[in-house]
Records
---
Amino acid sequence: MARILETWLGCCLLVSAFGMVPPPENIRVNSVNFKSLLQWDTPALPQGNLTFTVQFLSYQKFQDMCTNTKKTECNFSSLSKYGEHTLRVRTESEGNHSIWVNVTFCPVEETLIGPVGMQVNALSESLYIHLSSPQVENEPEGWTLKSVYSAWAYHVLYWKNGSDGKIPLMSQHDSLVLQNLEPWTTYCVQAQAFVSDRNKTGKWNEPVCEQTAEDGEEDGACRHPPLLAHPPAGLRGIVLRGLAALLLRGAAVGRLQEDQVCPLAQECAPSAPDGVLESPSSQHTPLLPTV
Ligand SMILES: *[C@@H]1O[C@H](CO)[C@@H](O)[C@H](O)[C@H]1NC(C)=O
Ligand SMILES: *[C@@H]1O[C@H](CO)[C@@H](O)[C@H](O)[C@H]1NC(C)=O
Ligand SMILES: *[C@@H]1O[C@H](CO)[C@@H](O)[C@H](O)[C@H]1NC(C)=O
Ligand SMILES: *[C@@H]1O[C@H](CO)[C@@H](O)[C@H](O)[C@H]1NC(C)=O
Ligand SMILES: *[C@@H]1O[C@H](CO)[C@@H](O)[C@H](O)[C@H]1NC(C)=O
Ligand SMILES: *[C@@H]1O[C@H](CO)[C@@H](O)[C@H](O)[C@H]1NC(C)=O
């Protein structure tokens, strides 16, 4: 203990004697949905009034981003989403300053994708799921991450509440329908964004659980023939999981989605030909059923 204190005192006396200001510590970027903050910790030296300055490199010259701030973070969301940025930060104290510490960051590659929005409505033995992309920070309303990442899709998990068997699906649409579920059963759904061309996944959202009812007549027009007519429950689960796993690996897009999942708007149009999957526009406003 004494030795540690001695070393610490030695270090700090030395530092003050030479008038050196320690640089900020633990420098990191916290970036979610393109809201990007450079953050750091105050160096361990109690040297009175410390302030910090952050600059960014633009056309080979550094420009100020945050100057003489007492905060330990600097918002650089206003910089372009594309391209790699070089930022640097230093400590200032009583007219002296530390060395600069560099950080590089490429928002479009490195920003984290936050949880997606999700609405789940049960109608008879189906669940209607509507997913929405998060907004981009510092852009007008309606600018979503989906408009930045063209290969935007969703990983969806659903399961019977209380069971461990989570069934994975992939959807390129904002709306999908899970059909032929068990009646009077509570299912839970969870989703995350997935950007395949960048192998980037978002944060999972909180599961939403809804209880199915029994098939009435009102949604008869929205049904496909089931994948397997009425297999024993156990077998059905296994087959679905197997297929879904294939889907997730990108090996197959087809049977499962075609028969068990369909984009909502297209599917419920009275004249939609049976088995048509792709919705011509992903911008449609889905007609969520009111139960
Ligand atoms: C700033 O640092 C220099 C040495 O680099 C030192 O001589 C000077 O006293 C310091 N100034 C203040 C105000 O601490
Ligand atoms: C810090 O700055 C305030 C005024 O901004 C001053 O009153 C105070 O004496 C300074 N503290 C030290 C330790 O220099
Ligand atoms: C920080 O980045 C600038 C610009 O790229 C470069 O000139 C400088 O050498 C870098 N400094 C360090 C310590 O890496
Ligand atoms: C960060 O900066 C952007 C653009 O300058 C601004 O729209 C946003 O509100 C700021 N966010 C915070 C948390 O300060
Ligand atoms: C899910 O099941 C658990 C017990 O396994 C129960 O406590 C909970 O209320 C159920 N949630 C819903 C939404 O039904
Ligand atoms: C995609 O990312 C995951 C981890 O997030 C990694 O395990 C996998 O190997 C990556 N795939 C490719 C093709 O880079």
Note: The chain has two domains: 20-110, 117-268.
---
Amino acid sequence: MPVARLTTKSKFFIDLAYWEQQGRDFRQELYDALCDECRQMYSLETTLMVDHVDAETGEVKVMDALLDCASAVCRNAPDFVSPRMPLTRAIFRALIAAGNRPQSAEEIYAQIKKGSPAIILKELLSLQMEQDGITPFVA
Ligand SMILES: [Zn+2]
């Protein structure tokens, strides 16, 4: 990975193909991120695809209802990103909140207000985040 060229403006996303390769269930992760109220509306067993409107770009794309709900509704819950959470978890939640639209360390920092853009970039490149499928976005 060309780490040296990555800056706090470089975008990262959660590579769902990686999760699949590893045999891990991203939907379980999303389900756990939902607030109690929303969790009752969905089931892990049934995958429901819905039209998702990106809050920032207005772009519409088809997305798993769990990700749509987490990024449109549950992200506003007070404990969706909490200062008590480990930084890596807060970063992961910030990407979910963005509907997994690639985010830079600066954008993530603006949302989680924890650490600094430089610290977040370092975390984004850490082995732990790599194991969670966090990958630089190449446009
Ligand atoms: Zn919710």
Note: The CA atoms of residues 24 and 41 lie 23 Å apart.
---
Amino acid sequence: MSIYQDKAKECKCCGKHVPLPTTLKEYNGTMLCPTTFSNVVEYKRIWKAAGSRPPGSTRKHFSDYVQQLVEATINQEE
Ligand SMILES: [Zn+2]
């Protein structure tokens, strides 16, 4: 078990896929791989710009996990 394998386990989306992330970022107390982190930031930006939950045609580009993370922070802000 390499340090990268150990680290990757902290991101719920990528326990197994290759290549593993070599760095993780924290978002709202959750450790995320850079891909998921970027998607969260982008999804939240779209949500804020729209002022409400983006339509299905936009949501389909983001995983359920990403949507769930963003919705949790939106709910906290309200
Ligand atoms: Zn990941």
Note: Strands lie at 25-27, 30-32.
---
Amino acid sequence: MAMMIMSAAATLAASLLGYLCWNLVYAFWVSPLAAYYKLRRNGFGGPTPSFPLGNIKEMRTIAKLTVSSSSSGGGCGGGGGISHDIHSNVFPYFSQWQNSHGKVFVYWLGTEPFMYIADPEFLKEMSAGVMGKSWGKPRAMSSLMVESTTRMLDEWATLISSGVPEIEVESHITATAGEIIAKTSFGVGYNESGRMVVEKLRAMQLTLFNSNRYVGVPYSKIMCPRKTLDAKKLGKEIDSLLLSIISTRKNSLNTTTNNNKDLLGLLLQENHADGRLGKTLTTRELVDECKTFFFGGHETTALAISWTLMLLAKHPEWQDELRKEIKEVSGDKTRVDFAMLSSLKKMGWVMNEVLRLYSPAPNVQRQAKEDIKVNGRTIPKGTNMWIDVVAMHHDRTLWGDDVYEFKPERFKADPLYGGCKHKMGFMPFGFGGRMCVGRNLTMMEYKIVLSLILTRFSFSLSPSYDHSPAIVLSLRPSHGVPLVLRPLA
Ligand code: HEM
């Protein structure tokens, strides 16, 4: 009898083990190989993956080789020489694979296929071309922006007068942009809880980036338990901070007239409109909405301004042009106000040229909800698409021989596309129905902050500036942007 029970238990254990093994083999090899051959049959080639890591190992090797060759002088220009030809440095594997596989190919992160796209015509054929939406109560928000920026500039002035003319401006601008987005998204002011939300959200961003190393590899969360737990803990802390902000605001809605013109105020008012709070969006959805805005809006704008300061520091003639324009537009007034922003045309060209050369959002992603037919080939349902914005913005065939030059005037005759040969070759804010909802707000923040800086200071690049653009979710200057600032009389 005992023998029979033991043998039944052994059979059960063996079948369980067999089932587990089959699941692993299926997830790690069978399923990705089937998808691989399906994509190949549809005419989509690319670097050969080896499962379960896909092309991750090769990507790391190429990235490592690039880092060591740029630190030995082959990069995009440390110290004095600054080259804007950055694609092969920030996305070395894509740059290398483009040479052998063209502008559309498939690569693998673990067992997940990604369709790489750097061909605007393919993108046009593939996308539905729906219009985007936009958000923002600009006039009410501009005064919040002036207030935060002025506080930052006063701090710069104090530093300079105490004998510190060199300031690493990127960190200051990122902190100020965090403050602005916290105010405009969920009405959190420059106080302790406001700073705490901003700091925690930023920490979350970094944790997410760092835990992304094995994205696409099955069970990768189990492989990095520490990072997964850290991200979970931070997520809970952020949620409870935002929940307490939301419930305070909900209570004040019941007792007072709500004058808050931030995103949360608008959402709460919509929810409250028919007297049944929470009908339109649940509290959970409100928290998610606030987080999406913070992640989408804070660093991107700060980076656009920081890269602009780097480029203007190298091009003092453009600093002068913009100061002249600000003077013309503002006339007798001491500072630019909301109504004047649309007249700052040259500043708009500069912004676009900066977004072209150093697009803070270096890529855009999509997933095929259905099979998509493109020129007789089928992109299977579920395929991830990875659109290389940096590659298209630095493509000589689209922009001409001066592609790597800082030339804001290319947007003079063609303010939307800068003379790009294809309408989808310039897309700093994405495309179609999911295009960035914050682009109007960004334009406003950019012009306000830049006008305030340019009217108070002139600046040049510090000799310690090290030109090393790198991807940490966004396209950032690895070592910040140290400037030498001089107050203007
Ligand atoms: C220079 C500044 C900015 C850049 C370069 C930028 C870029 C982008 C890009 C490329 C996307 C993806 C679009 C797509 O998938 O087609 C996006 C989405 C988004 N952006 Fe921005 N953005 C900026 C500023 C902002 C600001 C200031 C906010 C908020 C106040 C914001 C909020 C969002 C949100 C919420 C989404 C997600 C939209 C959706 O998924 O429907 N962005 N942005």
Note: The pocket of protoporphyrin IX containing FE is lined by residues 181, 292-293, 296-297, 300-301, 304, 360-361, 364, 428-431, 434-438, 441-442 (CB under 6 Å).
